[in-house]
Amino acid sequence: MLPPLIENLIAFDYTAFAAGPCGCVLHLHAFHQLDVIVEGEVTISVEGRGDSLLRVGDALFLPPLWRHCLAHTPEGFRQASYKFYLGAPYFPCFPKEPKQLHLPREVVSALNRSARARGLPAVAEQIAAATLALARFAEPEEKLPAADPLRQRLLEVVERVSQAPQRRWAVADLARIGGMGTETFTRHFLRILGMTPRQFLVEMRIRAAALKLATEPEAPIKEIAAQAGYGTVHSFAKTFRRLTGATPGEVRKSAKIPPVGDKDRRCRGV
Questions:
Q1: CA distance linking residue 172 with residue 262, whole number of Å
Q2: Could you tell me which residues come within 8 angstroms of residue 132 by beta carbon, excluding any fewer than 6 positions away?
Q3: What span, in angstroms and rounded, lies between the C-alpha atoms of 36 and 38?
């Protein structure tokens, strides 16, 4: 059986924005993102790529480590935003630089109907998988230069950790994958991702735990805490709440996968 295209769906946002500045700052993720404009239009900024105006049917595919933000919308817009990790076998099959796509009207209509009519948690993964599969075959609007060598190295690190987030990684392991000494790797990692390698590893384990809580209701929280590297449920719950804004029990009850990350790095709707 083929593994799923989307191994970990981190979040699915179906968000409307009023006209004017979007109030977002440049930020980046260690996961993939696909933003599809379903109503209106918006300018999106990507570091090193400038501003792009996206209208209904346009989509922006963002691989990890690309700083971006929603900038301005003249009359308001609505987007479907998918944040996810690709299944390990598919990671090298997808672009490592941002790519603008255009989806057929029928696909956009289907996204709208699915998100409005069924609610998000139950069908988010199916919607994201179908959207991404269709978007993969869309024609890019322009050819873009490849990511710089340093980002490529860090992307390899992100890929390896995303394949096994609960492994007991050491920073030295990540530095070896990146082909750098530990101090040099830590400095570049902090500069580009805005967090230390240790913070990154904690967030990856908490993301894996959040996914398990939302999708495996029978798995004991104590067991999930142990897999995430915590000796007690109390210490796990404390870190979990700090990074997600919810308790493990609340996530399990709602069956929603929460966004994970320090609050000062989050940005509403992106």
A1: 24
A2: 5, 6, 34, 82, 84
A3: 6
DSSP annotation string for 197-244: HHHHHHHHHHHHHHHHHHH-TTS-HHHHHHHTT-SSHHHHHHHHHHHH
Identity of the amino acid at 247:
T
> Which secondary-structure segment (H or E) carries 61?
strand 58-62
Q: How confident is the model at residue 149 (pLDDT cuts 50, 70, 90)?
A: confident
Cα–Cα dist 64/155, whole Å = 7
Contacts with 102 (C-beta within 8 Å, 6 or more apart), sequence order: 57, 58, 59, 138, 139, 141
Do the beta carbons of residue 139 and residue 175 sit within 8 Å?
Answer: no
- How many Å apart are CA 209 and CA 203, to the nearest integer? 10
Please tell me the distance from the alpha carbon of residue 49 to that of residue 67, in angstroms, as a whole number: 10
Kindly report, residue by residue over 182-200, the tens digit of the pLDDT: 999 999 999 888 889 999 9
pTM listed for this prediction: 0.68
User: What does DSSP assign to residue 27?
Assistant: B
First and final C-alpha spacing in the chain: 33
Compute how many other C-beta atoms are within 10 angstroms of the C-beta atom of residue 232: 11
Report pLDDT digits (tens) over 2-53. Answer: 677 777 777 778 889 999 998 888 888 888 898 999 999 999 999 888 999 9
